[in-house]
Recover the amino acids of this structure.
């Protein structure tokens, strides 16, 4: 791995960690429940991005399955929570 | 032994990764700094679309060159994300509208069924 690619990966990771911390701030502080759901969705997406960058870092395609799983769980949890806030039930 | 990746591949991969990091950071700053929920719904779209596309293109380029063949399995993530993100966004915006209408917020627009009065509905000619 060349120093150029390594420094780009470190920079992207730093940006992701900072973004995750900021989204966590919104998750803790959010005035309404919708804000928290939105921040949780953003955190799941950033976790998926981190896994995809790790796949490039360690040259292993195994991380894509983990990224897909995190993405699926993030969507299901966000949709279920939004549906619960909207209707009071998840499945009617 | 893994063959080394040529430099003309590493430069675009590094640029795409750095770009995705910047987009994600902008999205997170936006979600913290905007004032209302309807404004705050917009910045995560940067992370959902631009950042995910940049990382996907970078990994497709990198793994295609490394394997010596086109490896497209990262497309699955971007296809899935582009299908699921609008669903979550619509549900969350409907939730905000519903809950703020219920709390009696005067800024919220009235529901469409209240705009159409039943008498106007009866007098209007029905199709067929």
């Amino acid at each position: 791995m060349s120093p150029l690619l390594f420094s780009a990966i470190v920079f992207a990771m730093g940006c992701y960690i900072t973004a995750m911390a900021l989204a966590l701030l919104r998750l803790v502080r959010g005035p309404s429940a919708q804000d928290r759901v939105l921040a949780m969705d953003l955190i799941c997406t950033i976790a998926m991005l981190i896994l995809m960058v790790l796949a490039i870092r360690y040259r292993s395609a195994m991380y894509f399955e983990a990224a897909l799983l995190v993405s699926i769980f993030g969507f299901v949890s966000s949709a279920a929570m939004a549906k619960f806030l909207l209707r009071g039930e998840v499945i009617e | 032994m893994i063959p080394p990746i040529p430099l003309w591949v590493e430069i675009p991969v590094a640029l795409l990764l750095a770009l995705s990091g910047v987009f994600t950071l902008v999205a997170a700053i936006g979600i913290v700094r905007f004032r209302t929920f309807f404004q705050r719904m917009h910045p995560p779209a940067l992370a959902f679309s631009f950042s995910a596309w940049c990382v996907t293109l970078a990994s497709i380029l990198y793994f295609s060159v490394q394997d010596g063949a086109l490896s497209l399995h990262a497309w699955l993530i971007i296809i899935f994300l582009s299908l699921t993100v609008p669903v979550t966004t619509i549900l969350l915006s409907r939730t905000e509208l519903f809950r703020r209408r219920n709390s009696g917020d005067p800024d919220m627009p009235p529901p469409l069924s209240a705009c159409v009065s039943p008498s106007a509905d009866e007098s209007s000619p029905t199709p067929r």
Q: What stands out?
A: Residues 120-124 of chain B have pLDDT under 50 and may be disordered. Chain B has six helices and no strands.
